[in-house]
Amino acid sequence: MATPSNARAVKSLNKSSGRRRFVFKTLSQRVEEIDIDVYRSLDPLKAEPSEGSSFFRDCLVEYRICIAYSLNHFPYY
Fold this sequence. Notes:
Elements lengths: L3 H10 L13 H6 L22 H19 L4
């Protein structure tokens, strides 16, 4: 059961007055309200994988280097 304080909190969300307080929005209205914060990566994108390799292999090698670094610098118990 809702307590009086919960009821006040919910009522405080209702900023408009009148009968049509809760109206379903169309998809286009909801899409307009989306705020996307776009950022750009500072890492350069490679156009081609390394010689004789693939993007997948390059990522595995980079992952292995990151894991080795973290194991050497962050002791585990």
